[in-house]
Amino acid sequence: MKKYSLILLAFILAHSTVLPQVADRSRPPEPGPPPRIQLGTHEFFTLENGLRVIVVENHSLPRVSFRITLDIDPVPEGEKAGYTSVAGELLRAGTARHSKEELDENIDFIGASLSTSATGISASCLSRHTETLLSLMSEILLHPVFPEDELEKTRKQLLSALQSTRDDPGTMAENVAKVLRYGPDNPYGELMTEETVSRITRNDLVQYYQTYFRPNAAYLIVVGDIDSENAHKLAEKYFGSWEPGEVPEHKHEFPPAPGTNRVAFVDKAGAVQSVIQVTYPVKLSPGHPDAIPAAVANSILGGGVFSGRLMQNLRETHAYTYGARSTLNTDKLMGYFSASTSVRNSVTDSALVEILKEMERMRTEPVDDGHLQLVKNVMSGSFARSLEDPQTVARFALNTRLYNLPENYYSTYLEKLEAVTPEQVQEMSRKYILPHNAYLVVAGNRGEVAGKLEKLAGNGMVEFYDAFGKPAEASGELPEGLTAWDVIDRYVEAVGGAERLDQIKNLTIHMSAEVQGMTIEAVSYQKAPNLYAMSMSMNGAPLMKQVFDGKRGAVVAMQQVQELQGDALAQMKAQAVMNPELRYHELGYTAELTGMEKVNGKETYTVKITNPLGLETIDYFSVETGYRLRRVTIVGENSQVNDYGNYREVNGVVYPFEMTTSLGQQTLVMKVQEVDNRSEIDQGVFAID
Predict the structure, then answer these.
(1) CA geometry: angle at 366 spanning 360 and 370, to 5°?
(2) Same domain, yes or no, for 420 and 283?
(3) Which of 8-17, 243-252, 296-305, 511-520 has the highest mean pLDDT?
(4) Alpha-carbon distance 665 to 166, whole Å?
């Protein structure tokens, strides 16, 4: 039988090539009709208390998920911005029956996951634990207590996180972009700050929960190994007692795009790169007839990433960046457009010019058919892949109701996508891509970048903002005749004077910091002229030690000694010099007075100091006191920022008793416990074993 099958196969192959079709390879084949989407089914019903329930059955795995989501307007938070997020986080921090620890233990015991937010609760588990999970979920939803001690823990964590984000250029740029797009009093533009977090009370959390967590303003989405009838019974059992109530509505005026391009700059001390956002508000809701062709236009510009024009221009043609993209965000109330990238200081203005040029090109040059088809193919493929997830069916069902979409909106999505023409793309670009009515937001090095951006502003001005979108006060003008050496000499006098500093031959400083509940302790030792040691421990256990004995340098970690060589040894030797400011000239340092800037609201003189090895630091000296308030050290493409404060006198010499170190998004606050500038340090401290 096998033999005859092979003969038959050979016959078919032979005769199929007798009269071959001649293909026209000069043009791509015409695309076939878009496939009809067969979406999975779902059930929808409403409980007596108004809770709307969507059920998507999927029995491929013995798992089930539940999600309560609120359908409410954005809530104005005012001077307590962030309290709704805190309320959402603390929803699962304890109930009338169980503490947070007990809830966590019960959830972990069944291998489930459960998270809460300002707009709901999500949970999932193996289907055999469904009722156990729903019992916990119902308890958290209906009987939260918002413990005061958990609020204080969360407040402490938020304040620490905010300290880190104020030095992250990406977050700084995003903060300013939000405030400018929507305004500081719009819920979309309100920002959590240290001040707003400090004002949040437990009563704020309770009021938010009691006002907005109502079943008649919520959906329950059930997905997984469960049938609709059982889902209905369980919804009634665990959420039927949830009491409905009147939920306030909030109306907000849509903010207009700027009449002309405005340049907004937020200073990141010592930054070697600029984070760029070109942005403005957009009125485009999900399901609007423009939504799909506008998404295609954005994908051509920069939503498709590597195929996008922004990426091709900024990365491939000009090598300004590793990545550039654009986003056209649809929203029921207020959407936005943003084109973003990160580039070197020296090409920040050029990168902005190219971004605006590509935005303008979308409006003036029709896209070619081949590129358009490529983008549509990518988008249709992404859509098709999303259908493999049963959560997608639930999401589509929810969106259809949230945004009042036609019932066939998603089943006909591919047809609408395939129908997009080059003319529509250009029309959408002219409507939603606005290269002359945008906020050009840049977070970066003010001294090196800001002055080059004036030509891009419609009013010829660069506007300055702080890390949270508040207008920054303009710095003063440098006094005529003032030099970098004048500023350094004034610093020396402010901290005790050259004569007294020169008398200090031994200096021991004890410091500590709290990091995620652990205590880091550090002790630094200096002995004139150039002996240095520093040891660090965590919760009493040694972490590492640095030593320079006047000739040799080493790092000791994990009981291993690594001797330093070359540049690393030379840098440690320079670091070991006590009070180097007294000897900058003889040691070969150079200093340049670069301007005036504000540090934490205080006016400073900025001085760029370069050591004999070429390492650059920027020191910020207080105009008022002469003290050094900040030092920025440039390390390759990164910069480390040290802020100094709480200066105190010890035996006639003034030292900072608090130092905040920021590197990227990591921030460490070191507090000094003791400064000893009299006791003799044993020579053995500097020994390299």
Answers:
(1) 125
(2) yes
(3) 243-252
(4) 9
b/e map 441-454, b = 16+ CB within 10 Å: bbbbbbbbbbebbe
Are both 675 and 632 inside the same structural domain? yes
Query: How far is it, in rounded angstroms, from Cα 85 to Cα 152?
Result: 14
Q: How many domains does the chain have?
A: 3
479 found inside a domain: no
- Taking the CB of residue 539, how many other CB atoms lie within 10 A of it? 10
Asked whether 200 and 86 are in contact (CB, 8 A), the reply is yes
146 vs 613: CA distance, rounded Å = 56
Separation of alpha carbons 495 and 485, rounded Å: 16
Beta-strand ranges (E) seen in 136-257 are: 218-224
- Structural domain including 549 reads 484-686
* Per-residue pLDDT tens over the stretch 144-175: 999 999 999 999 999 888 887 877 899 999 99
- Report pLDDT digits (tens) over 347-372: 999 999 999 999 999 999 999 999 99
- Residue 417 belongs to domain with CATH number: 3.30.830.10
Please check whether residues 321 and 222 belong to one and the same domain. no
Read off the pLDDT of residues 538-590 as tens digits, 9 standing for 90 and up: 888 888 999 999 999 999 888 788 999 998 898 899 889 999 999 999 999 99
* Last-in-domain residue among 206, 239, 272: 239
548, HSE (Cβ side, Cα atoms, 13 Å): 24
